[in-house]
């Protein structure tokens, strides 16, 4: 079959300031479909200046669309367009799975793939080709008349056994993400997360069992991105790259054994860093430049409600250990936990300034569908437009802080952090030179933030 896979465009502030990365989930599915003999086209509207050309839809037998919460309205526009042309639309991604009823009710989407689609999507296409009963496909949700049918969970892929993502289907030169000015490509080395942070849907979507690729498999992909595609920087974008220190050390040793001139960044939990100084040293020696840490809050009670108890004191140690090894720290903070007052938020901002990580990102607590937080706050949600679920807007009635004050504190957090020292101001000015800060874009950005 001819399959068109579409990644919807970014929305709001992210179109102004966001960096773009290839959609790895779609590229993995594309690889599985190609292996099953299908002809696949991937269109990433993050990087295209215009809307989807109907020509591409007409050329396809099936249209697959991925989406998260923020981009679902754009994803549904594409689904409507494809359905109007008479093509079956298959959706995947966390938001469609957890809001299946709302999406299928529109009549534009044929079915939704639950969880990872690498094995389910090829099976579904076989079913569509043979015009068999959808109920026979495990891992999907669809409508049968007025009834919603959810089949048993589909097979969970072993990432070790999957084909490498089909990077050849995209023009990788169009993506803006870089590390120290060097263009980078993402690499996924594991799936699943044993954590259960209340604001995150990762463990509901991928499952709590951590499934990792062997160092050999990861190194084989690095060989490909380094030699075939010419990348000199990669981002290990899986949630738990450093869950097994032995595996990280083996990957780092493999990079060094190849004498690759490679820089990289990865996500990590604070506890994985602080308990493994040897691993941090090996990472630094093999080109690790930045580690993203979910620091979240200065407030112990907030950390507890997020499922990150015992993190408080370890955070400063983790930041110190990384920086002593020459690795920059990207700290991520969430403002406006349910128990917090404006004063508590100010304490988190002060903590970010004191920790002095190299980069900081502040987000407003957001109840994404599929998370324990969403279930808890469902009745308090007042902003129903999904495009506002960008962690820059308060979408629920907060028990202690009003909406405008929290958004003001978000801006204050950025101003305080990026004006904390002369060096920080200079770094920010350098960053500004790489961005389009035209009046029109800034006004659009301000509008997106406050309306
Ligand atoms: S925030 Fe990170 S550690 Fe927590 S559940 Fe999500 S992926 Fe796992």
Automatic annotation (TrEMBL):
<dbReference type="Pfam" id="PF02310">
    <property type="entry name" value="B12-binding"/>
</dbReference>
<dbReference type="InterPro" id="IPR034466">
    <property type="entry name" value="Methyltransferase_Class_B"/>
</dbReference>
<dbReference type="Pfam" id="PF04055">
    <property type="entry name" value="Radical_SAM"/>
</dbReference>
<keyword id="KW-0411">Iron-sulfur</keyword>
<dbReference type="GO" id="GO:0051539">
    <property type="term" value="F:4 iron, 4 sulfur cluster binding"/>
</dbReference>
<feature type="domain" description="Radical SAM core">
    <location>
        <begin position="179"/>
        <end position="404"/>
    </location>
</feature>
<keyword id="KW-0808">Transferase</keyword>
<dbReference type="GO" id="GO:0031419">
    <property type="term" value="F:cobalamin binding"/>
</dbReference>
<feature type="domain" description="B12-binding">
    <location>
        <begin position="9"/>
        <end position="135"/>
    </location>
</feature>
<dbReference type="InterPro" id="IPR051198">
    <property type="entry name" value="BchE-like"/>
</dbReference>
<dbReference type="InterPro" id="IPR007197">
    <property type="entry name" value="rSAM"/>
</dbReference>
<dbReference type="GO" id="GO:0046872">
    <property type="term" value="F:metal ion binding"/>
</dbReference>
<keyword id="KW-0949">S-adenosyl-L-methionine</keyword>
<keyword id="KW-0408">Iron</keyword>
<dbReference type="InterPro" id="IPR058240">
    <property type="entry name" value="rSAM_sf"/>
</dbReference>
<dbReference type="InterPro" id="IPR036724">
    <property type="entry name" value="Cobalamin-bd_sf"/>
</dbReference>
<dbReference type="GO" id="GO:0003824">
    <property type="term" value="F:catalytic activity"/>
</dbReference>
<dbReference type="InterPro" id="IPR006158">
    <property type="entry name" value="Cobalamin-bd"/>
</dbReference>
<keyword id="KW-0479">Metal-binding</keyword>
<dbReference type="InterPro" id="IPR023404">
    <property type="entry name" value="rSAM_horseshoe"/>
</dbReference>
<dbReference type="GO" id="GO:0005829">
    <property type="term" value="C:cytosol"/>
</dbReference>
<protein>
    <submittedName>
        <fullName>Radical SAM domain iron-sulfur cluster-binding oxidoreductase with cobamide-binding-like domain</fullName>
    </submittedName>
</protein>
<keyword id="KW-0489">Methyltransferase</keyword>
<dbReference type="InterPro" id="IPR006638">
    <property type="entry name" value="Elp3/MiaA/NifB-like_rSAM"/>
</dbReference>
């Amino acid at each position: 079959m001819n399959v068109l896979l579409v990644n919807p465009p970014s929305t709001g502030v992210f179109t102004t300031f966001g960096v773009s990365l290839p959609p790895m989930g779609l590229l993995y599915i594309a690889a599985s479909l190609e292996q099953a003999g299908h002809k696949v086209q991937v269109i990433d509207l993050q990087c295209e200046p215009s809307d989807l050309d109907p020509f591409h839809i007409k050329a396809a037998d099936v249209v697959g669309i991925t989406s998260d919460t923020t981009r679902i309205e754009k994803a549904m526009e594409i689904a409507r367009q494809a359905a109007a042309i008479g093509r079956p639309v298959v959706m995947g991604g966390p938001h469609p799975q957890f809001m299946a009823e709302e999406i299928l009710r529109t009549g534009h989407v044929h079915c939704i793939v639950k969880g990872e689609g690498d094995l389910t999507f090829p099976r579904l296409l076989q079913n569509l080709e043979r015009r068999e009963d959808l109920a026979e496909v495990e891992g999907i949700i669809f409508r049968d008349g007025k009834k919603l049918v959810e089949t048993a969970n589909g097979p969970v892929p072993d990432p070790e056994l999957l084909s490498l993502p089909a990077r050849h289907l995209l023009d990788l030169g169009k993506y803006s993400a870089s590390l120290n000015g060097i263009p980078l490509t993402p690499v996924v080395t594991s799936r699943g997360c044993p954590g259960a942070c209340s604001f995150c849907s990762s463990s509901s979507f991928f499952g709590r069992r951590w499934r990792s690729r062997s160092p050999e498999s990861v190194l084989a992909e690095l060989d490909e991105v380094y030699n075939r595609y010419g990348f000199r920087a990669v981002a290990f974008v899986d949630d738990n790259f450093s869950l097994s220190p032995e595996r990280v050390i083996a990957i780092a040793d493999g990079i060094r054994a190849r004498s690759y001139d490679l820089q990289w960044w990865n996500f990590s939990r604070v506890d994985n860093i602080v308990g493994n100084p040897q691993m941090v040293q090996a990472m630094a020696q093999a080109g690790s430049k930045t580690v993203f840490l979910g620091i979240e809050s200065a407030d112990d009670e907030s950390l507890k409600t997020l499922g990150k108890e015992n993190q408080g004191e370890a955070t400063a140690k983790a930041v110190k250990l990384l920086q002593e090894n020459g690795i920059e720290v990207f700290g991520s903070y969430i403002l406006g936990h349910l128990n917090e007052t404006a004063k508590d938020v100010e304490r988190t901002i002060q903590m970010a300034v004191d920790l002095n990580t190299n980069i900081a990102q502040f987000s407003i607590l957001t109840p994404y569908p599929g998370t324990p937080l969403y279930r808890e706050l469902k009745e308090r949600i007042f902003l129903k437009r999904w495009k506002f679920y960008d962690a820059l807007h308060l979408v629920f009635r907060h028990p202690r802080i009003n909406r405008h004050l929290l958004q003001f504190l978000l801006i204050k957090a950025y101003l305080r952090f990026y004006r904390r020292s002369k060096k920080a101001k200079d770094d920010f000015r350098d960053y500004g030179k790489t961005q389009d800060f035209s009046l029109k874009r800034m006004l659009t950005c301000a509008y997106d933030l406050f309306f």
